[in-house]
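Sanity check. The docking grid for iron/sulfur cluster depends on where the pocket ends up, so I'm generating a full predicted complex first rather than guessing from homology. Inputs follow.
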Amino acid sequence: MTVDHNESAASLAEKIAALKKEKHAVILAHYYTLAEVQQIADFTGDSLALSQRAAETDARIILFAGVHFMAETAKILSPDKKVLLPEPEAGCSLADSCPAEDFGRFLKDYPGHTVVSYVNTSVGVKALTDICCTSGNAVEVIESLPRDEKIVFAPDRNLGNYIKSLTGRQDMVVWDGACGVHEEFSVEKILELKKLHPEAKVLAHPECRRPVLLVADHIGSTAALLKFASEDPAREFIVVTEAGILHRMRQENPGKTFIPAPPAGSSCGCNNCAYMKMVTLEKIYRALRDEKPEVLIDEEVRRRAEGSIRRMLAVRRG
Ligand code: 13P
Ligand code: SF4
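Predicted complex below; grid placement will be based on this.
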């Protein structure tokens, strides 16, 4: 089978479904990917649910429609499976803000600290980590540690400081990293939207800066924001996270209005993660057909990183 560049999404989706069956593959997609990618996935979720699925699946191939750290997490958990990342350049500005070598040097200043890292990190950082977390379970992970434990939290300063304020942990050192997409949201733009839509509730991801979180009605992971949008009686919501989530929000709530918050100075009216949007149906089709690009990890580093994710998975989501 070949790919015609003008091939319709429907025809590619059919070819992908046939290959998936033939090759005993599963497609896991993040909520920030393109709508047509989410449509063909076997499972769409937040980072936590995706890592849980990756740990449980009995498929021979895991195709990750998402960014590099997500596919790498799947490979860490399932080293005997083939893990495919349709676009190897799909990185993450947050993971890039914490290079493993720099982090290793930083940790030397904090002996005796427990290292908690957000999953948006490289395998090298995970190998230096005691326990991982996602935005979906960060509070539970921190609270699973003794109250007097000294903690280093990496790499997201916004999530780290938010969790610090929620848990009241004083002995928590936070690495100075951030996501380029979420840092861009401006509280002024949200307040302008609020004037136009006074009844709208503001939903924000904890990777946003503190002034943005202060005006939010609900703060949570992508899955938590979706849950709130479905359960809350409000009819209008201002959504302060990556715009890909709007697809699922609108699909699940046909009678409600979802307004994407623009980043400061934006003319497009929404905020996209360029990395997530690199994953297309065509690339998924090619990756399944050719069984590459494959995510490969040095076994020694993988083993050192695995414990941090397994420990996270053992902590229940709140
Ligand atoms: P979630 O864990 O909330 O899905 O977020 C992942 C992410 O990359 C946020 O930018
Ligand atoms: Fe990384 Fe930010 Fe994109 Fe999430 S939205 S994958 S944190 S760059």
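Relevant for the grid: Residues 112 and 308 are 17 Å apart (CA to CA).
Also worth noting: The first helix runs from residue 9 to 23.
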